Amino acid sequence: MGKITSMRALIDPRDVELLRIVQENCRLTAREISDRTDMPITTVFAKIKRMERLGIIKGYHAILDSTRLDMGTTAFIFGSFAYRGGRGKILSQRQVAKQIAAFPEVQEVHIISGDWDILMKVKAKDVESVGRFVVDRLRLVKGIEKTYTCLVFGSEKETTAIAL
Question: 99 in helix, strand or coil?
């Protein structure tokens, strides 16, 4: 919480305005943003570069339609973590999460609280592909004890935007 609060203190209301615009459409030029905000183009450019340096803006990405790319099946997979591997070796939950994040079909990996330890979001071609991922790859990761898969029937909202 302290890290977020201190970072939030480094931005002003004009920065927030820029962040809203960039989240909505990161393809806008500094000139177009300048026209929308009545800020000089040099100010827009400098503010955006500053927020990139601070790590507030982490990158710019195209949002693809997974169904048009034949990857229309989404699953959320809960994983239970075993803290001891072979010969009693203690395993790192963070290292296991990083290993899972390296799989190309995995879009998100979160270490969570509650009955499960890790939550993953996976995109695949079909239910069978999700099953192969879980059985043939995920369950072979040292540290994954058991899994629980929820298939998505439909999505009303998917976004990377943060409410500012």
Answer: helix
CA distance 94 to 33: 39
Contacts of 57 (CB under 8 A, 6+ apart): 19, 22, 48, 51
Are 60 and 126 within 8 A, CB to CB?
no
For residue 146, pLDDT beyond 50:
yes
Largest CA distance in the chain: 64
Task: Tell me, yes or no, if the pTM score tops 0.90.
Answer: no
- Torsion sign across C-alpha atoms 150, 155, 161, 164: negative
Q: Sign of the C-alpha dihedral, residues 119, 125, 129, 133?
A: negative
For residue 62, give the H/E element and its range.
Answer: none
124 token code pair: 């695949």
Averaged pLDDT, 73-92: 87
Distances (CA, A) of 164 to 14, 15, 60, 94, 135: 12, 10, 18, 29, 40
Contact 85, 143 (CB under 8 A): yes
Adjacent-strand bridge partners of 148: 78
